[in-house]
Amino acid sequence: MKVHSAHRRDLQNLDDVDPLSGMRDLFDMRKDHVFFNGNSLGPPPRSTGSRLQSVVRDQWRIDMNASWWKYEWLNLPRAVGDRIGGIIGAAAGQVVVAESTSVNLFKLLCGAVRAASARSQARTVILTDHDNFPSDLYIADGVARHFRPETTVRRVPTDSIVDHLGDDVAVVLLSHVDYRFGRLLPMREITARAHAAGALVLWDLSHSAGVVPIDADDIGIDLAVGCGYKYLNGGPGAPGYMYVSSRLLTDFEQPVTGWLGHAEPFDFEADYRPDPGIARLTTGCPPLLSLIALDEGVSVTSRADPRDVRAKSIALTEQFIALARTRLARFGVEVTGPTAAAERGSHVSLRYESAPRLAGELASRGFDVEVRPPDLLRFGLAPLYIRYVDVFDCVEAMEQLLDHIA
Amino acid sequence: MKVHSAHRRDLQNLDDVDPLSGMRDLFDMRKDHVFFNGNSLGPPPRSTGSRLQSVVRDQWRIDMNASWWKYEWLNLPRAVGDRIGGIIGAAAGQVVVAESTSVNLFKLLCGAVRAASARSQARTVILTDHDNFPSDLYIADGVARHFRPETTVRRVPTDSIVDHLGDDVAVVLLSHVDYRFGRLLPMREITARAHAAGALVLWDLSHSAGVVPIDADDIGIDLAVGCGYKYLNGGPGAPGYMYVSSRLLTDFEQPVTGWLGHAEPFDFEADYRPDPGIARLTTGCPPLLSLIALDEGVSVTSRADPRDVRAKSIALTEQFIALARTRLARFGVEVTGPTAAAERGSHVSLRYESAPRLAGELASRGFDVEVRPPDLLRFGLAPLYIRYVDVFDCVEAMEQLLDHIA
Asked: What EC designation does it have (chains A, B) (predicted)?
């Protein structure tokens, strides 16, 4: 599929044979815009609005509180978790949906630090990438500051992570795909190195799940969190998810011990007793309406073959990079991020000094992209609904705009 | 309004002059059922379903991620918080919506324990009622177990709380209205006693906000949490809310330090720097669709005059108790909970040995009540949509059913 063509017709031909072309119709999208920011918030599946209406009108209204049992709302955090498990290569019972990525990360990091110190008191370091997503860094710092005074956070450059795997490392915290430049880290290799050094590994899958195949169980990762509203199309502020390997689950303790994590939430026992399974990671009632929307997003996303998704993701990013290099370099636009497809997620960032202005002009032409100040334009190339011609049209529009600006 | 009549017509007369009678039409409810379990999950406002549809179709679909700014989604946790502030007597900027009651309680308790120990190292006790809602007890235990090893939780009988206000108490954690028997604690008196003893007070308003007038600022409470899906009618698993008095806010630190609590969430600074205001209590993206439903519920609830609500709540519970005593005592049905209206919230529990069976029979007659095993039937008398005749009809149905059972 290595066609880097200057001709729109060639890209149209790729769309015509795209095995994912039918997926696009499952989303309710404007015809007059192309959203290259679906990696910040994916578009609504067609089914989401009507499902929400139905939940309000036919379930909540009719059966009120009994709906939690009658329509299995109570089980939905685990059921949707299992469906996400299908996307990230996790067998049932290891993924659950709750709160937000950051709250979930807090729970897992606290549990990981505790588990590591039980193995060895000397393991007190959370090792992470200094370019990790800021909220992940803030949460790690919060755990160190508030949770266990002996914990420290060590931020190091991405490429030297494995060099810092000393016997003081409790847990390695990394994003599978970097939020800015789309760099995809070698999960299998890093996990193996961390395990060899006696550390746990916690992966943030927010920018990879749904576009990059993940074999959580096969690789043997320990812990993961991820976001529901990017490539899983779960809607604004969709709850996040947690993965805890069944190897760790029985002894895994998280500190936010609310009733829904109890083994018998409705027995109202005097003391907390964690659920034996993944529900021990939950705390309070899930935000059901948002969870319903996530269920729709995950269900739609699950219908695509992950191999097709990855193949198209690579083809889209390669195409975009080749076109941008060919047609935009003369305006000082620089393609950032990994050059090898194997090291790239599904978004590409361009560096351009007047990035905010260019993004504004692009939006007025119907191409929505995201600006990372001061000079980055981020293009999410979501294979389920971005077409090859969209890539062509967007680069062409940029060329015309830059010609005009220049 | 002290009419305890055996005649349905007298109750119909009360409905006819009820200043809240118009509120009922704002909810989308079945005509063939009366829900006395609205204190577990309030009914949907009529506007909720269509607002959700509109948010999906006209905002999310059209403007995607830009909706967070364009439609002020980002500000909604504070805006809805301020509206809840209006219901609980809190000036703007002290209430914010996030996650669930239990997660919020975790944040506030951690912050309270930290704040108290900064005042005095000797203050290490979370003092609470041993009949408090189990999740509140579990969370307190979780804070003690995981957060600060020197913290202990002291559970004492409700009536002896003020006797345990020693100089080792960091924070008093109480439910304003007891979830089982509807006992309403004297918030002003207990808060004053706790303050005199140098302790902070954290109130759980889940069973009072929306039915009992609360003067958070005037009383001078320190901290509060509450639930969005009971009397605030915010929908299943609606996010909860936190109140932090402006007296404490500047120095208040909570441990789950995610990006949305940052002073500049979108600047992606290297280090966490808490928002100067109430947003420091937030962590990750709010579950927007659930938050929209909460906004609708709170908006509808806010339209009632709190004095009318309290007056009707008292009248409904008095009526219910009088009718139950008169007509059900001979079957061994016992009215539990406070006898004085001033000590009662808006629900009443009856004790009956075959409570589950009676609840089942009542449901088949169109009266939905909640069972607290083994022998309690809980009746939520929500003044916004429960009518006086509903109370009459329900007690009459119970009498007929018990006659048949006996």
From this structure: 3.7.1.3
Question: Which tens digits make up the pLDDT trace of B64-84?
Answer: 999 999 999 999 999 999 999
> With 0-12 CB in 10 A as exposed, 13-18 as middle and 19+ as buried, what is A215?
middle
Same domain, A291 and A320: no
**Model pLDDT for residues B207-252, shown as the tens digit of each residue:** 999 999 999 999 999 999 999 999 999 999 999 999 999 999 999 9
Q: How far apart are the first and last CA of chain A?
A: 34
B344 is catalytic: no
Residue A229 designated active-site: yes
Which tokens is B191 given?
């808060």
Domain boundaries, position B27: 8-46+305-405
Residue B271 in domain: yes
User: Is B68's Cβ below 8 Å from some Cβ in A?
Assistant: yes
Active site residue A230: yes
B289 closest CB neighbour out of A262, A268, A293: A293
- B148 falls within a domain: yes
Task: Kindly name the residue from B178, B204, B222, B275 that is annotated as catalytic.
Answer: B204
Mark yes or no for CB contact B268/A146 under 8 Å: no
Q: What is the number of domains present in chain B?
A: 2
End residue of a domain, out of A252, A286, A302: A302
Find the residue in A nearest to B68 (Cα).
A236
Contact state of B137 with A291 under an 8 Å Cβ cutoff: no
- What is the distance between the alpha carbons of residues B163 and A48, in angstroms, rounded to a whole number? 54
Contact A284 B73 (CB under 8 A): no
